Each structure stands twice: as structure tokens, then as C-alpha cells.
């Protein structure tokens, strides 16, 4: 984190000007210059049930321990979580979280049922929702469309969209050579018309559909009458009518609808029908929206919070970039569901093998195309060149995955050590003992680990024809020729290495304990890793019971990443998220899009990359926009939240200061208790009380954050039921004014405060 000394000289001036100009700048300056709170005092009226043994000096006590555990081991406490964990007992709660299969997560399953595509097997997903590359393949091979009417409609509409894009490209290229009125322009327009399948007249129409007048007639018809009639059909009839439309008719129908009509089209449809409607327009957009929505909803609502946090940790550790190519979005749902989450708390070696064989990872780091230079496939290529005289594609040996496997996934980064560095005392995050030759040898070992039919099944397979024959030398050990077994042997070697134990323990300690974790703690965690054969829950248990984890110095000393900030803000405020898309977009604005890290190293768990004046102002702007219910399908009820908190508070609670005599001050103190679970600093409290009526700051936040409340992309997004009581109702809840606007603005300021930014 940026040091206080760097900014203290100008702090007073910045704070004064920020207070005059708006709240966001003021609290962001506070975040940079205000010292980390060593230990917040217990809130007035809070119940204390300390079931743990007396701590060592300098250790957290009582409610602080519960808050610390919830801040570090979950995505943040919800209203009531502190009391629930205190009643259960902290140790018992932690052991339960280590065994997520024992925790009822049925409420989350209800939400996930709104996204059935994300539950399909990899081959089923690719069959139902074709990738753009699969569509181009079908067009080139003239493969027949599927027989199922709904799937057929999805394919037909995507083929029509692809033909239209190609026609527009051809027209654009022709227009660049001659004027649009010239012969080439006319020819390209005719080519575009020929590229589209023949249109059909609507029932009851006797106008020739090939004439220009017909196009104008149909557009007018849809805009005035037909569209309304279709939208008003009962859901099942409406869906059948949509599926039966030829692609160009469906496109005109969509274009004729206004925003409310687009929303009404999906009302009453089943989740499968809504997915089909969205996929008929743009399969890739539907796939990405559902992928990101379900990941965010799991972080928000899963009762298995430690599993969710560890899934996020491993998705970052074994990073895969969403936009590597057009096929990657189709692979990531299975990657999270079948590869990462089931192994998040288990043996690291099992996780390592699962990621190495995952089509998502094989495609991201190109190992699926790697071919041994002396393999049968390479020899066949040379023979083909001799016979035909034409060069065949030469993918050759690819070292991308082998390098990241050792550098980022297991042993750690190789570090250059200066002459004055103590011998053998490498920095904590450094790997040990591998060379470029080891990288090449591991790449040879893993040749043949590829993907079977990437556009149809996308399953892992070992292809012996691509495998490099012969014995290899890896980290000083001979790997005898054995096909696929060679790779398993190398992965075992890496997973059981003491260097891997230390590197992973260091990464976990950075995520959960400190940006500069105590070496003794890292060593203890590494020893636990080796003693348990790489069982992650044993490593976490060692960390949890270590005195370093409960140090007062570490209390709320970690800056939240954008993902942790967004999710914890929604959880702390009890916000109901029926439309995750605005929060997905918020993460883009805050610099941490889900699956959005292009390079394999993933996002940083440390503070420094996330601390800048612009980033902190953006966080404050988001908090103000979200708390005021200006995002569709993201709604908090602070009046109900405060009422519930008042009902649960002790009647003997005394005001903490003379400020509490004011109803406004009482409300602010109550929000501190609900959102922060600790008192705010005097500076934060003063700023909130001065700025909660600053309408200009609220308007500035909405303008600057960049998410428009009525953005068509959000309103027409893949949004499951507006309420869980009626999951078939797909209408996204429009932005609504908060029931208590005063409390909402206060809440936004507190959620953007230094106290909430830290965990």
C-alpha cells in the first residue's frame, strides 16, 4: 500500500478541497493517508460470546476474532453472520467450512437453476450452443442443421448472422475501391442479398417478399401490430412463434421492439427458453453473460464461503483468459465446476493434474497444439511435404504451458540473486533449481496432451502420435518413455516438491494473512503441506491455528481487491441481486474483470496494484451508485436493514457520544454497526454526516462511474427471475429509489470508507 509519509504533507489541503467538492475524494484521500486501524473497539450493544482460549499478548480477542475470520475466509460478513458464527463457535464454524459437502447450499442451487446452460456437460453445451467457429465450419461443409426445433433455430439464426457479417464486410471492401453507386457497390449489394436465405411472407400477406416494398411493409407491420401481438401471446405460444420465425424475420422483429417490449418477450418463459431466445440473437454474448453471472452469484450467496474463496484463489492461480479466442468461453464453466471447485480444498496434486488435462488450460496456453519434433505426427508432416511439395502446418513444440507450470503453478518464479544476497536465502516467492532445458523437457513430456474435437466434444485426450518419444531429463531425474504416464510422473514430482510446498504456502499466506507474511508462518504451512501429501485443508488449518493469523497487526490490514470489495459491499448491505450484470460491469470499471487477466500470472493479492486516486474514487462512486439502487436488479432496503438491527440490539445500549442525540447521528451509528461491525474513525463519521445530503456528489458518482441505470445491455441481459418467489418471471427489476434515501447515501459513503476497504 502507498505509505502515509508520501502523502501526509498534502493531506490536509487535499482533504479540505475534497470535502468542499464532494465526498468521494475526501474518503479516498483518507484511505491513502489514514493509518491502518490497529483494533476497532467493540460496537456498543454487541454481544460477546468468546468461546476460544485466552489469546497470547498482541492477539485478537472476542468479536475481533470472528470479524477477522469472516473478513479473511469469506467474501465478507452479511447481516447476522457475526452473531451466527459466535453462537456456533469459531473453531466449529471453520471446520464446517473446510468440509463444504456438509453445508446446505440449496438456496444457491435455486438461483443457479436459472442458468441451465452452465450445468450442462461440455459436449452438451457445445452441441446446444455452437461456437462462432463451429458455425463457420457448418457453413463451409454444408452440414445439415440439427433436427430439434429449438436447437435448429439457434443454429439457423447464428448462420444468418454470420452471413450478414460476411456480406457487410464484402460490401465495405467493395466500397473502399469504388463509390457505392458504382458497379462494384451494386454488385456487392446483390451479393449480400444472395448470401441470405430466401425470406418468407408473414401469414396472411400476399405481397411478394422479394420486393423492397415488402421490407418496408413488414417493418411497419412489426412496429405497429404484429410485435405487440406476439409479445402478448401466452409464454409457450410466444416461444413457439419465436422459434418458428425465419432468421431475417426474427431480426426484424427484435429491431421493432422497444426496451420494455424486449423485456416483456421473456416474461413467463422457462430458463431454457430464455437462454434459447438470447442464443438466437448472439450465442457468444449469452455464454459470456451466464458464465460471469453464475460465478459472481456463487461468491455472493454460497453458504460454502471458504470453498468459494478458495475457488477464486485457484482460478486466479491457474488463470485462464476469457478472450484467448472465441472458443474459450465455452470451456470455462466446466473448468470452474469440474476442475477447480471440486479440488479447491483437496490434494494439490489432484488439482494440478485436473488443470493440466483441462481443455480450458490446454487451449489457453496452447499445449493442445504442441507436437514433439520426433513424433509420428511430425514425421508424417515431413512425408506429406515430400509427396505434395507443399508445406504443411508446423505447430511444433510449444513451451508455454511447461514454463508456466513450473514458474506460476508449482515451483515459483526464478529470481536473479545479487552478489550481496545471502547464499541460499532467496526471496520467499522464488522458485528453485530449474533451467530452460527443464522447461523444454517438460514440454516434450506433455506433448500429446490435447483436446478431442474442440468444436464438438472438447474433451481431454492423449494422442500418442503427437508425443515426443525417448527418455527426458527433468530436474535431474530421468523420465523414461511411457506416453501419458510421463506427464503424470512429472506432475507428481512437481506437486510433491518442497519448493512447491513453500511457494503455494507463501501465496496462500499473502491472500489470507499479509502482503508480507511472516516467514515462520509460511514455513509451518509448507511443513503441513508436505506432511499431509499436499492437502490444502491441512495447510489452511495450520494457518488458522497459527498465532500469526490472529495478530493485532494484521487486523483489517489487507486492502480488498475490486472483486472482494464489490461482493463484500453487496453482502454487508443485504443487497438482493437478481441481475448480476451491473456488478459484472462494475468489476470491469474497477480494473478486475472476471476471467479478464490476459497474462497467466493472474491478479495480484497485494495492495499496491489497486491503490491509486482514480481507483479509489471509482470504488466510492460504485458504492454510492449501488447503495442508492440505481442499478437494475441490484436492490438494498436500508430501512428494513436498520429496523432489523434495532430489533436485535440490546435495549440497554447507550449512545457512544453526544452526537447520538441527533436522529441523523443515531442512524449513522447504526449503519456503522451494520456495515462495518465496528466504529468508524472520527474523520470518516464527520465526513459522512457532512456529505450525506450532498446531491451533487451522488450525481457525480452516477455520471463518473460509467454504468447507466437503463443501459439496454443491462436491461436485456440474461437476467433470471425478478424474484425468487417467481423464478419464471425474467423481467429485471428497474432501478428504484431507496425507501430511506438518507440512509442509502450514508451507506454508500461508509461502504467507500477506509474501514470497509480493508479486510
Highlighted features:
759 residues; mainly alpha; 3 domains; two-stranded antiparallel sheet; 2% strand; globular; disordered N terminus
Structure commentary:
With 759 residues, this protein is mainly alpha-helical. It has three domains: 230 residues, no CATH class; 170 residues, no CATH class; 137 residues, no CATH class. Helix content is 56%, strand content 2%. It is built from 36 helices and six strands. The strands form three sheets. It has a two-stranded antiparallel sheet with strand order 1-2. A two-stranded antiparallel ribbon has the order 3-4. Helix 2 packs antiparallel against helix 32. The longest helix has 31 residues. The radius of gyration is 29 Å and the shape is globular. It starts with a helix and ends with a helix. The N terminus is likely disordered.
